[in-house]
């Protein structure tokens, strides 16, 4: 069984829902045009928004297949840090309860990706044995 099965499953579901729902609802376009473009990323806001969602979407399949997990983690963490800086920081720590739309969820996701980076994968063990 893969290491960090539950962690990988949870990250996969979160990334899948965060990407697919916003793609099909059109929110990714709105975020690019109405938010990113207005804070200085114009005319690239929509492209950045799509890049983020596609990275999330492809990350799901790579995490499930136990391939390039460290690269996936390194790609997603800057997205989450930028989300903290650009969107969530002004709202404080709490996502719900003591506030709304805060940074706590992004911090947890960053820690989950760090766990994947510092946990040796099954494929890495096989490569070490064969060397």
Automatic annotation (TrEMBL):
It comes from the Bacteria. The chain crosses the membrane at residues 5-24, 44-64, 71-87, 93-118. Keywords: Membrane, Transmembrane, Transmembrane helix. This is DoxX family protein. The lineage of its organism: Bacteria, Pseudomonadati, Bacteroidota, Flavobacteriia, Flavobacteriales.
């Amino acid at each position: 069984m893969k290491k960090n099965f539950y962690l990988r499953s949870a990250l996969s579901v979160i990334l899948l829902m965060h990407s697919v729902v916003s793609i099909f609802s059109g929110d990714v376009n709105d975020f690019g045009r109405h938010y990113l473009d207005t804070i200085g990323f114009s005319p690239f806001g929509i492209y950045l928004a799509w890049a983020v969602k596609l990275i999330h979407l492809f990350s799901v399949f790579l995490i499930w297949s136990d391939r390039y997990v460290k690269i996936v983690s390194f790609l997603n963490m800057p997205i989450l840090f930028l989300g903290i800086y650009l969107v969530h920081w002004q709202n404080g720590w709490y996502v719900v309860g003591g506030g709304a739309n805060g940074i706590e969820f992004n911090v947890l996701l960053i820690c989950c990706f760090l766990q994947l980076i510092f946990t040796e994968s099954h494929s890495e063990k096989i490569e070490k044995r064969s060397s």
